[in-house]
Design goal:
Helices cover about 60% and strands about 0% of the residues. By secondary structure, the protein is an all-alpha fold.
């Protein structure tokens, strides 16, 4: 009977170790985790896509964030530059341009 009790205890210990390993696999405090920061749409499809790209950093280790941030920054800078390049109303003529 003692062998049966030992066998049952061994199975219970194995089950506890397996459960502990499962919990450890689920929660790793050093693993990447989303920050849960919500991004509100801007109404500009290109900018919204870039801001959505920031979510890619949620699943990367910290050393992978810089690539995402630089990519988004580059895209936002290009979007702002494109706004400056749009044709607008002509600038008023300066009185200095009409010299004789």
């Amino acid at each position: 009977m003692s062998d049966e009790v030992d066998e049952v205890e061994d199975k219970a210990e194995d089950k506890d170790e397996t459960a502990g390993a499962t919990v450890a696999a689920v929660y790793d405090p050093a693993a990447p985790a989303p920050l849960g920061v919500e991004r509100a749409p801007t109404g500009h499809a290109g900018v919204d896509a870039l801001l959505e790209r920031l979510g890619d950093a949620d699943h990367l280790p910290a050393d992978g964030h810089i690539e995402v941030y630089e990519d988004v920054h580059r895209g936002l800078r290009e979007a702002l530059t494109a706004l400056d390049a749009r044709p607008g109303p002509p600038a008023p003529l300066s009185s200095y341009d009409n010299r004789s």
